[in-house]
Amino acid sequence: MEIRPIRSEDDHQRTLREIETLWGAPPGTPDGDRLDVLLTLAEAWERDHHPVDPPDPIDAIRFRLDQQGLDAKALESVIGTRGRVSEVLNRKRPLTLRMIRGLAANLGIPAGILIQEPEIRVPSRSARHPRHRKTG
Fold first, then answer.
1. pLDDT value at position 14?
2. How far is CA 79 from the centre of its chain?
3. 77 with 108, same domain?
4. Is pTM, for the whole model, over 0.70?
């Protein structure tokens, strides 16, 4: 395969197939150099045509806690009282700059993720109005 720009999804798929055949080629060899160039082209195409949105800040916090085997109590030293941690995790209280700095330093979550507006999750009508819940 001649190396050329990726201009279509078909080109991208062909490039991925060639990357697969070259995977593990030693660096500094012709195959290793070809692999590096093809990886660069594929990454550029994917960045432009299949961007990945950054995660929601609260989801990122929950994910990092899960990764590290921690529970919400671990956030008290960074966020404050158990009630405040609960409010943040339940999207009832926004993260402050102090909280963002603490979470970035203590959990290693990039501040750029934490500074975003969290996703607003509106409960269904039955959850907001208990008397409208269906009973089984």
1. 94
2. 21
3. yes
4. no
